[in-house]
Amino acid sequence: MRKIDQDHTRFRDIVRGRIKGDLKKYVTSGEMLGKQGDKYVSIPLPQIQLPKFRYGKNQKGGVGQGEGDEGDPVQGQGEGEGQAGENEGQHTLEVDVSIDDLAKILGEELELPNIEARGKQVIKSSATRFTGISKVGPQSLRHFKRTFRQALKRQIATGSYDPENPVVVPIKEDHRYRYMKTREEPQAAAAVIYMMDVSGSMGREQKEIVRIEAFWIDTWLRSQYKNLEVAYIVHDAAAHIVDQHTFFHLRESGGTKISSAYELCLQLIEDKYPADEWNIYPFHFSDGDNWSSRDTERCVELLKGSIIPMSNQFAYGQVKSAYGSGQFKKDLDRFFSGEEKLVTTDILDRDGILPSIKAFLGKGR
Fold first, then answer.
1. Rounded distance, CA 15 to CA 23, Å?
2. Cβ proximity of 45 and 92 under 8 Å
3. Are residues 341 and 198 in the same domain?
4. pLDDT in tens, 227-273
5. C-alpha atoms less than 13 angstroms from C-alpha of 334 in its C-beta half-sphere
6. Domain total of the chain
7. In this structure, is residue 61 part of a structural domain?
8. What is the pLDDT of residues 330-361, one digit of tens each?
9. 208 lies in which domain range?
10. 199 and 332 part of one domain
11. Do 151 and 216 fall within a single domain?
């Protein structure tokens, strides 16, 4: 290994350790969410200052001169202007960390098991080795053994081969080349369906909590599935499929009818994500208010009869707000007592994000 590779590996280990030690801080702040790309996330880390030698004149004229005996503490004083501050200066360094590394850190910190996937969808993937032979190709991929074998067959067939003088000379038509085949391989695919109450009781802070938690849920699931699709549903008294930006920023002032979101979720599963091909993960976030007990009964009917049997797991996160009653979680816990495929959590504030993620993903479903 080259020296630069050793230094790079050591630096990555230092950064990884720093992120793991301060994972709760990074999760609750949500700072990295605005700096994410397709494969990497920029994370601000405190800059590491390495000690350096400074060359200059020694006032005493030599090394180790002056009053004092061996073992005495070193004393000295400096000169400066202005008053001393009481706080340490902050020096930060932007470091790019891959989504895969973040997923590993999250999995290690929360002790998340790998998911046992169900359902297969056929996805095109490239072979990892050359498995085919072609009559055309670049000289760098010419298959010498196949080429000379073909030349030998040709010479024997035409009677030009002399066993007493076994000289085989390939011509252009004899050349054979390696090539890579693209084949169909079954890979597990997952569909994540986020649902959120966007009525007036769900404020900006509640949406930010959902946004942060959704980022880390996506990060973990992407490490488990090569093919992951995400859909977003918002609801107040009616439900709509929206894009990601609208999902986290839309705010309405109407009432709340949760069954409208569950009906749209079920329709989406039936139309686009059949349960025999997809691993389905519905996540619903709300402050716990629903317009009537009758609609809650409708939600229970949809969950029991269709959504939960089709899903790997159904997760409900109740975000605390000043206006939410929190009743819906109580109803779900009562109706689905003992149902392992339904998980509910209370998210009182940002400190509740990590425990909620562990509860949602900790069963490896």
1. 12
2. yes
3. yes
4. 889 999 999 989 999 998 899 888 777 778 999 999 999 999 999 99
5. 7
6. 3
7. no
8. 999 999 999 999 999 999 999 999 999 999 99
9. 188-361
10. yes
11. no
